[in-house]
């Protein structure tokens, strides 16, 4: 299948932190993929800006090496790689000083779309925004891209939003969450709102519960110091899992337009009930064999930070009354997997008795790996011997349907091009961020005041046993974590 792409208008994309890990691993490879697909116009330019003492040639060599390291298959066409690297420029810039800003201004064209990617620590967002305006580099049509964390609580989120608002209007600010750029996440909206099959059933009358799981097999590693001040709740639930919950639970927007979609997401966040202590399980992975535990990796022997969390969440509205949402995420688990499982209720009258209850219909939405959707349907098991039921999947694996994973753009590819187009649909709005922290803060404050110690769990497991109890006591169970 050949990708159908629409070239965007000429642009200058400035990547602050252009020599950093994110730029080399995700941003530049994503841009190269869009260039390879013919989506990048001839006049487009990418400008790396950082503290390193490099020139254009040195930067192109660095990024060339990054492309070979992180996208080796895509680099087989040497001429294509060279053509892309020739689009790259570099400026040595002092984010908090004066060095490099005049040169940057001379490179950024006022008659092209201007986008500025803040791939730096949030503490530098304000300084960069201020200098872009002091040096008259950013105009009223410029766009800025900021990475999480969007604050670490409600107070800091409000302060960050206020800082950005001093120099940029809300329609110019793109708060990027790569989960929303995944093909499956967007197909979730298409499945819900473009098919009469699902939307009439998408409510408490037919759905028993929803599970959202983001499981990782890696530990905190070199991020131990940062992670110990964050934890799974701040690092994953407040943003990634919250956004997935919103897309599952939101009402149909009046149109597929950025503010209409984000208005409905905001309503979901504001409808979330407070979570009681009994509906939260926090965990921390323990040493196993030659593998260090969380405490050892974080460097904090007294750490009370969770590397795993599971919550039972309720949305207070008519659509979802008494239908719980179970969220869980953790590190050092048995498999790397991200999925949403929508578990439907039993049929109103079970003519097959208990056999029907053992085979609920489940819509499994896989975000990683192997993006796709599977709907479990119950049929009769072939052969004689009476009515024996079995589950069969209606599988919608995108890699198979699209004849190759190369046709499914990476999340960063899609989101960066959305910035250039001026489409904010898949980006978080400032009031969304603040509403999410307003719900999250009391939960964190509760266990902090109690000095609750996370439950230990084994590396390679599914998390603490208490997380299973969270489901078992209501006659439910977590789906197995599978790659």
Number of helices: 16
C-alpha geometry: globular
Strand content: 15-25%
| Total beta-strand segments | 15
CATH topology of the largest domain: Dihydrodipicolinate Reductase, domain 2
Number of domains: 2
Uncertain runs with pLDDT below 50, 5 residues or more? none
Strand order of the largest sheet: 14-13-12-11-7-10-9-8-15
CATH superfamily of the largest domain: Dihydrodipicolinate Reductase, domain 2
The level-1 CATH class of the largest domain? Alpha Beta
Mean pLDDT: 89
CATH architecture of the largest domain: 2-Layer Sandwich
Percent helix: 25-40%
- Rg is 24 Å
Structural class, by secondary structure, is alpha/beta
Distance between the termini: 26 Å
> Main β-sheet: number of strands, strand sense, barrel status?
9 strands, mixed
Offer a quick outline of the entry.
The protein has 483 residues and is an alpha/beta fold. The chain has helices at 21-36, 56-70, 78-85, 101-107, 125-134, 154-165, 183-193, 224-227, 231-249, 258-270, 294-298, 354-357, 398-401, 411-421, 430-450, 465-472, and strands spanning 11-16, 45-50, 88-92, 113-118, 143-147, 173-176, 207-215, 280-285, 308-313, 325-330, 337-344, 362-368, 372-380, 389-397, 455-457.
């Amino acid at each position: 299948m050949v990708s159908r792409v629409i070239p965007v208008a000429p642009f200058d994309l400035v990547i602050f932190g252009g020599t950093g890990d994110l730029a080399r691993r995700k941003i530049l490879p994503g841009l190269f993929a869009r260039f390879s697909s013919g989506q990048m116009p001839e006049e487009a330019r990418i400008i790396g800006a950082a503290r390193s003492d490099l020139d254009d040639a040195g930067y192109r060599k660095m990024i060339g090496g990054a492309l070979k390291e992180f996208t080796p298959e895509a680099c087989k066409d040497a001429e294509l790689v060279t053509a892309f690297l020739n689009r790259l420029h570099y400026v040595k810039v002092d984010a908090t000083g004066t060095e490099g800003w005049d040169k940057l201004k001379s490179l950024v064209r006022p008659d092209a779309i201007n986008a500025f990617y803040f791939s730096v620590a949030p503490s530098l967002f304000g300084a960069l925004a201020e200098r872009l305006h002091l040096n008259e580099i950013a105009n009223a049509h410029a766009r800025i891209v900021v990475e999480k964390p969007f604050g670490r609580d409600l107070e800091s989120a409000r302060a960050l939003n206020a800082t950005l608002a001093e120099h940029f209007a809300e329609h110019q600010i793109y708060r990027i969450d790569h989960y929303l750029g995944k093909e499956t996440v967007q197909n979730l909206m298409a499945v819900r709102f473009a098919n009469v099959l699902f939307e009439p059933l998408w409510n408490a009358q037919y759905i028993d519960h929803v599970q959202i799981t983001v499981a990782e097999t890696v530990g905190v590693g070199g991020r131990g110091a940062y992670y110990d001040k964050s934890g799974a709740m701040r690092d994953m639930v407040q943003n990634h899992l919250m956004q997935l919950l919103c897309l599952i639970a939101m009402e149909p927007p009046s149109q597929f337009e950025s503010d209409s979609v984000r208005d409905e997401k905001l309503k979901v966040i504001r409808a979330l009930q407070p979570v009681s202590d009994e509906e939260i399980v926090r965990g921390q992975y323990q040493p196993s064999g030659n593998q260090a535990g969380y405490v050892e990796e974080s460097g904090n022997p007294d750490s009370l930070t969770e590397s795993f969390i599971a919550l039972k969440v309720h949305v207070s509205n008519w659509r979802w009354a008494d239908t719980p949402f179970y969220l869980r995420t953790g590190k050092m688990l048995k498999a790397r997997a991200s999925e949403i499982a929508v578990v439907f209720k039993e049929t109103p009258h079970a003519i097959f008795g208990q056999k029907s209850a053992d085979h609920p219909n489940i819509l499994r939405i896989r975000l990683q790996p192997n993006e796709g959707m599977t709907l479990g349907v119950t049929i009769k098991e072939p052969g004689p011997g009476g009515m024996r039921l079995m589950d069969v999947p209606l599988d919608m694996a995108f890699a198979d349907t699209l004849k190759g994973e190369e046709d499914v753009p990476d999340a960063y590819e899609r989101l960066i091009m959305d910035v250039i187009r001026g489409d904010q649909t898949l980006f978080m709005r400032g009031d969304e961020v603040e509403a999410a922290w307003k719900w999250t803060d009391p939960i964190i404050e509760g266990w902090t005041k109690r000095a609750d110690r996370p439950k230990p769990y084994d590396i390679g497991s599914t998390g603490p046993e208490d997380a299973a109890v969270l489901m078992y006591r209501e006659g439910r169970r977590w789906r197995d974590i599978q790659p």
